[in-house]
């Protein structure tokens, strides 16, 4: 498995799988909003009360009573988390809890040298936390009346728990966007993995190692004037591999299409270098008043009748379309084809067979050439398919020299 990271590959996969990005964003947005709606956020409410002596007039309260009152502050603070108080608070709120379950969420604070007690209750939802806090304070007030104290005790609530403005408002948009962003990041990760973990032909080093062939170049898909320089460079590499003359076959793996003018543009590039070049074009049909390769192999046309001069490209062309559908895909006469190529070698510097499709006919044609170039479409053909075609070419007697990679991102 070829594991690589390439920005062009990621962008290409992103264009193909953009729907996954949108889908996971929408799914994340919806899931976050539904979760927010169904699940109340935690909130901590606060209430404070003062512990004092319950006397009818100030004359009944003396200085000696201060220490006793201060001790009662801590006694009242301890009552807050007692089972009696918590059960009373739960009953007041009509909740289905036990004192043991509620106790960890209730805390008290007593400032130094103070008769004030602050109660904090944490619960699900602002309203629940506020109601439960006030219920605890009310339960403490009811409980202190039953205390066996020297001086009657009372508590005065100075700060009730209230809901702050907007505290219970849920921000669905913000939460949804956060969930959507997480979903989009997951989709992007999937796309990056889909691009980087691939068994398709991408890296030339990997292709060369798997197929046992050398790279002859990278070519664009279009046969435009701006692309001819790439084809001229490729033609120079091709001449170095094939020699100064000969028959060159361009082969594509079975089930694949060339998807680019590798053979025809290479023939044109060779012609521009001053070499007499003849192209066997398997995608071109014979003219209505002319003949093609199939008629020649059936003995119904002469060599001169099947060769047409393409003045624009400066090459000779033999129309070969329809040959693959004849005779069950086999060449009508391999002997005649071999003899034809032998005669043409004396008249032309280069004979280009391209691009021959995979299968029996393609292998037969490739075996008649002096060298064969494997045409691979970038990121479209699997490495196993490319390696299998290279091995099939060797088994049939063809001489695969190298490969060319089509459509590589610039």
Describe the structure concisely for a colleague.
The protein has 410 residues and is α/β, with parallel strands linked by helices. The chain contains 15 helices and 14 strands. The chain has an eight-stranded mixed sheet, with helices on both faces. Strands 3-4-2-5 form a four-stranded antiparallel sheet. A two-stranded antiparallel ribbon has the order 1-6.
Query: What is the CA–CA distance across the termini?
Result: 24 Å
Topology, number of strands: 14
| Classification by helices and strands | alpha/beta
pLDDT under 50 segments (min length 5)? 1-5, 55-61
Helix residue percentage: 40-55%
Strand order across the largest sheet: 7-14-13-8-12-9-11-10
Q: Within the CATH hierarchy, at the fold level, what is the topology of the largest domain?
A: Rossmann fold
User: What is the CATH superfamily label of the largest domain?
Assistant: P-loop containing nucleotide triphosphate hydrolases
Classify the beta-strand content into a percent band.
15-25%
